[in-house]
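Example record

The entry below shows one chain as it appears in the dataset: sequence first, then structure tokens.
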Amino acid sequence: MKNFFIAILFFALSIVLQYFWIKFQRREHLMQAQKTYGVNIDVEIKSKTPSMGGVIFLVMSLIALGLSFSLDALIFWSLPILSGLVGFIDDWLKFKTHTSEGFSSLAKLKCQLIICAAWVILIFMRGDLALGFGFYDFGGWLALPLAFLMTAGTINAVNITDGLDGLAAGSFLISLAVMLILIPMNKFNSEILIELFFMTAGFLFFNIRPAKTFMGDTGSHFLGGALAALCVMNGRTLAIIPVGFIFIIEMLSSAIQIFTIRKLNKKIFLMAPLHHHYQKKGFDETAVTLRFWLVHAVGALLISLAII
């Protein structure tokens, strides 16, 4: 019964807070400039859309921490909150400079790496760090660098995926559903999953095309941190592979594009990450989002069923 009330509270509160935050952003003109090198589709509409919806994730996470305060909760929420704050600084600089570039890429990466390194070391010192999926676990020093790389990679992968209305948020909800079969369902994990699911669902209510708000780097960094924290803190670091299926594909598409341009002087995709490739091919944005959701759900579920 408690979980039912948490679900209702977080969904309703997320919608209400997001509604008033959107109104405030519109009144204060808190919109970001669109990238000049982007797909150039619906630029006028998207440039007038509030772009820091992820701020409400930070607010909701503090509420979650206050409702069920414990050392475990503090450790868990610290990663998405600190990651989200890095994204918030990036979003705020974009707004202040009226450009699509905020934090320098190197400065942002340094902040991410420091946060991820400190958090993963903390989990390692607690003795909770392990690779595997629960069925065949192994830990030790090998777990430390891999958990660090996968945590930082997940944050950036979600950030890269956040490029279409509803794509990142909807994919994140699918990831949480797959988590049900990959991590132990104790009281702590069930509450965290419910809180994350319904706060994100409240955001998605306004983010489905045509989006009334974007999550910005604040939101994508927060969700990436939350996804990594759930896997790593439960000793299921490699579970990031199935639950992050579409995010990993998107990140790999960008990496492949950069490599082939720099080394081979040619493009593999019309534009990276992959969702923009299909936009360039003329696919409707909603069609791309729905198909990516489907691919993510099928891929994540198949990998999960193969390893449990």
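Notes for this example: The mean pLDDT is 91. The longest helix spans residues 71-97.
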